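Troubleshooting: if your tokenizer reports a length mismatch, compare your output against this known-good record of 190 residues.
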Amino acid sequence: MDTCEMQNFYVARMLGGTKLDHPLISALVTKWKPETHTFHLPCGECTITIEDVSLQLNLLVDGEVVTGPVISADWSATCEQLLEKMLNKFRGSQIEIGWLKDNFQNIEASVSDFEKEQFTRAIILRLIGGLLMPDKSQILVYLRWLPLLADLKEVRQLSWGSVVLATLYWELCRMTELEKAKIASCMCSK
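Known-good structure output:
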């Protein structure tokens, strides 16, 4: 298998999701201490490290850090520019992952490089919203990630592993609040 085939296999596996033990995740959340970002277990303390994220998800952790909110006055125009598809599936600043799946399912080999880039952005957005940093509904993805995908060469240089770990820590800390019922992170993918 060459490098491109291996990457395609890995992406297909990631989009397929994984089965999780939700009672185990709930039990781990009860052991999470937000003050130290560690699990307090009978055998001692442990945590999820940036190296774990790198090894498990094969994400870059040494690149430029993604910081700050990305805001667009017109998400429809942003989608049309970067995906060349106009959509009406907005929910605030989110879109349905199903819309991405339906509209970017297959690509012909004869399409232009520009169309291949649009398809690639849609697949990356699906990965972000469906696996790496899903919202609690697991059917929506935040459009704030789309402008970061404008330059695909630049995307490769970003430390996506750091963002995933920060999101996971954020969600674990939020889950320790008693009134929270769901967690949104790469721990809860299908």
